[in-house]
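User: For my dataset I need records formatted as: sequence, then structure tokens, nothing else. Please produce one.
Assistant:
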Amino acid sequence: MRRVRYESRGGPLFVEEALLPEPGPGELLVRTEAIGVTLPAVRKVTEAAEPGPLGGEIAGEVVAAGEGITRFGTGDRVTGLCFGHGYADFALLHEAMASPVPPGASAVDAVALVRSGLVALGALEAARPEPGESALVTAAASGVGHLAVQLARTRGAGRVVGAVSDPAKADFVRGLGADHHVITYDDDSWGTPVDYALDAVGGELLTPALAALAPEGRLVAYSSGGGTIQAYDLLVGAKSVIGFQMARIARGKPELYEQWREELWRLFAAGELRPAVHGEFALEDAAKAHGEIEGRSNLGKVVLIP
């Protein structure tokens, strides 16, 4: 089988031939039909000291199952987060991370919706939104952000402000349900303060995101980009910052994880949640797919098609 690998920080990415992996206890061997490209995977290549497997969201057909599998069998279509080599023709997926792809949904729909949607929905839940409150979503055109904008609307947000890196993304974000005024990160003012903010960028953007909150506002930080906040900025206005990590929910609260997955598919089936795909790339073009995210040019999800 083919898989994408890299040997040093910064790449390059290349395709190599590899042996077909054997599923261990609790693992599914999946013939991948679509692979979601994520910012953490891109950062892994550009920032990690040592090279490692390129994992991420996968969707496809189960072709073999390890010992102890109870929920899935050969021929089932599944999606989930792969922690090993995910950029490949075949990938191992732990049963706890897998969920069924419903009839009528494609593999591309699955990788664009499920993992990114779980992060978006989890971050929104962490903000404890109340109907009528106003929301700010950074990276609003990204794979997670474009779903967060829509989910905030489904939860009754009275105003949704999208923040993007490039004004050329504004029409796309407005088309998702954001209000007319879409801001860019370098704007002098981010407009009328909001009740809560979902931040997927981190770093230097944490300060203006916190400043955009109204008194007693909540900032949910779920980026892998780090960043620092001054305690005084929290005290003024009695604001709070909440950290959110999807892996903690998947490992520690599987019932809630499954409940969120079911909600995403329900919203998808009802037409209330529309995952957008920026582009589909072959495995051989994985470097180009990473470049779309590094250059912040993507509108929605970037997907590899083996």
